[in-house]
Design brief:
Layout lengths: L1 E4 L2 E6 L2 E6 L9 H15 L6 E6 L20 H13 L4 E5 L2 E3 L1 H7 L3 E4 L4 E3 L13 H9 L1 H10 L3 E2 H7 L4 E2 L6 H13 L3 H11 L1 H21 L3 H12 L9
Parallel strand pairs: 3-4, 4-5, 5-7, 6-8, 7-10
Antiparallel strand pairs: 1-2, 2-3, 8-9
Helix pairs in contact: 1-2, 2-9, 4-5, 4-9
Length: about 260
Amino acid sequence: MLDEQDGVRAWLDDGVATVELCRPPNNFFDLAMIARIADLYAHLASSTDARVIVLCAQGKHFCAGADFSGDRRTGGGPQELYAEAIRLFDAPLPVVAAVQGAAIGGGLGLACSADFRVAGPDARFSANFAQLGFHHGFGLSATLPRIVGQQNALDLLYTGRRMQAEEAATIGLCDQVAMSTDAVRAASADLAAQIARSAPLAVRSIRATMRAELLADVRRAVEREAAEQLQLQATKDWAEGVRASMERRQPVFRGE
């Protein structure tokens, strides 16, 4: 087992590596956490023993994105954060995300960086950026339309609504819905084990081919996303969105 660092730890068992977020209950991320995940992906890929990764999280929720309510910040601007996020997309090993509870905002972006998403019946997905007066990020401009189609992506991005696991499965946002929340990791590990039984060099080669255009599009997308986010951070609507989220109320946006 690799010791916990920056809220993430990892271990390897019979070809299946597990990378676990360790900031329950919400697993808010910052720059250091995303960099640590990317480092672990690279470290595991350097081993001939690791063939596939299960990305999972402790606690009630998979990942509620960045924390804007306290002292924890992303640790840098959007450009620095997304430079580390690109490393997740560029990593050689396939990834299965085990999603329990919420995958919100940047947490949804993290889940969509994986090849597959296995959800619990309690899972909910939301690209809630517009409800914060913000532009979406983490490469969702590139990933979300590929996964769910353009119209479903627009629905999620414009409204910021929460989508439950059953509906998410019908549009392809999650690939499986486990029988229970407790079964999410086991179902994810089962899928990962199936991948691990394939020839590892062939899987890496296939993945590189299948994700080449996605990687190029993510690189372009995060550049635009970061610029838009920096611009919108200066608006009154952004301040209102964050304040309303902290106060757990409906925001009142004025287009300012």
